[in-house]
Recover the amino acids of this structure.
């Protein structure tokens, strides 16, 4: 390994970028109204939230999309990593629970669960030294 960065820093960079790359395209259609009735779209999420009995399902669908899109972007950049990861973990906790109850774990809830685990790890560990957050702190 390089003397400049530890293997932990490189692992956090890989985890941040990989997780963020997954969230951005999942959040964008929910936030902007794309995707229609298909799984992952705003209309599909709005229907799912309404079935759960949540108030204002349309607004919540947009909020979930914004958290996924901007949270993913923040993870990639390494800005406010812990807060972004915590918000994403909450979204994935709800998604995991909903899918687990409706369709089971293997092949269904395992995907949001893996994102829950990744975001919880980032919420606890932060973004590491290879992040814009650390660069900003170093400049101060």
């Amino acid at each position: 390994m390089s003397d400049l960065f530890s293997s932990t820093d490189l692992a956090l960079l890989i985890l941040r970028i990989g997780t963020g790359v997954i969230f951005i395209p999942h959040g964008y259609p929910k936030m902007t109204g794309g995707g229609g009735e298909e799984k992952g779209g705003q209309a599909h999420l709005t229907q799912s939230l309404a079935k759960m009995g949540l108030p204002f399902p349309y607004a919540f669908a947009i909020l979930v999309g914004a958290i996924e899109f901007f949270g993913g972007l923040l993870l990639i950049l390494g800005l406010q990593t812990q807060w972004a990861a915590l918000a994403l973990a909450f979204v994935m906790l709800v998604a995991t629970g909903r899918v687990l109850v409706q369709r089971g774990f293997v092949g269904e809830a395992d995907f949001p669960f893996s994102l829950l685990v990744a975001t919880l790890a980032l919420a606890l560990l932060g973004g590491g030294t290879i992040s814009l957050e650390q660069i900003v702190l170093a400049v101060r």
Observations:
- DSSP finds six helices and no strands in the chain.
- The chain has one domain: 7-139.
- Residues 82 and 123 are 4 Å apart (CA to CA).
- Residues 7-139 form one domain.
